[in-house]
């Protein structure tokens, strides 16, 4: 029973990781690729870690896994935000893919304060 | 269980290949940094799977170290490698990181 | 940089001590008395050695709001993997158009803003591009927001997230700011 649960979690995690990989490879511009990268990557890794936790339910392993998951949850958004910001500011936006762009207006309009 | 682990390893391998192709292709440094992040996450997942396969948890410290350091690469690229577009009216006024 | 170091005071803050000790104990794999004590000593020493500028109004944890916030964030995280996988498998030509939108927030707290930015990166289809501190505006890249209705919906979603965040972590002032604006 526990083995089956581990297997299911590992398979789901690997599937999410693959969707991250496919997204990074196939989506058309940097920003859409980053959507795929940040979300599916975190989901995939967390599912695999959960699978490992089910397989080794000891205090030592569970505390380490909790810390890895926590660090992952904190650091991934930081990296994604910095890359996205740098990408926008260096003009790597494909305007053809955008419906509206309210940041461009904000960058052009003079800031009152 | 062995079959499942084999399938999981194969799927993770495919994911790693996808990110590697993106790293090679670019086109910009930021694409590569982001793909490298994903590759590291896939490697961490692979380490976890190897722990289950071997029935041993010696990889735990490695996972911890990777989770601490993984994001440093893309942060460094985003901050230092990309020439900062000089704009007089940046949207953020505060002293941000 | 000068003025920011001038604002730093040597002070030991209890939440930071608890947090640092928790990480230390987790790093050592097992919660023993020795680990707990050495962690406490280290946490205090670290704060004395590396003083940080005060972060403004602190957070206040509200158990009920926190539970709602955490459950919703976990659900969002799991949910966000699905549509993306579909789009990744669908290939280049089928990618819908996206938008970059500005969302003005009603609260001005930096702490709330930080938590929201982390939660947003777990929400399906949003990516934080930039923040304007002067009027607390978030700039987001929204996946698949190809018309005005979708843009309006994305903005409502973010403001709902702000409401959940403030109900989980907000101080009394944040709650007042939220209520003061109607909506």
Structural overview:
- The complex is a heterotrimer of chains A (113), B (97) and C (183).
- By secondary structure, chain A is mainly alpha-helical.
- Chain A has one domain.
- Chain A has helices spanning 2-26, 30-55, 59-89, 102-108; one strand spanning 98-101.
- The longest helix of chain A has 31 residues, at 59-89.
- In chain A, 57% of the residues are buried.
- By secondary structure, chain B is an all-alpha fold.
- Chain B has one domain (2-81).
- Chain B has helices spanning 2-25, 29-54, 60-69, 72-81.
- In chain B, helix 2 (29-54) runs antiparallel to helix 3 (60-69).
- Chain B is flat, with a radius of gyration of 18 Å.
- Chain C has 183 residues and is mainly alpha-helical.
- Chain C folds into two domains: 2-49, no CATH class; 63-180, no CATH class.
- At the A-B interface, helix 1, helix 2, helix 3 and helix 4 of A face helix 1, helix 2, helix 3 and helix 4 of B.
Report the order of strands and helices of chain B.
HHHH
**Shape assignment of chain A:** elongated
How would you describe the shape of chain B? flat
Major β-sheet annotation of chain A: none
Largest interface: A-B, 59 and 54 residues
What number is the mean pLDDT of chain A?
Answer: 80
Oligomer: heterotrimer
- What is the strand tally of chain B? 0
Alpha plus pi helix count of chain B = 4
What fraction, in percent, of the residue positions of chain A are helical? over 70%
Q: How many H/I helices of chain A? A: 4
Question: What fraction, in percent, of the residue positions of chain B are helical?
Answer: over 70%
Proportion of beta-strand residues of chain B: under 5%
Strand content range of chain A: under 5%
End-to-end Cα distance of chain A, whole Å, is: 62 Å
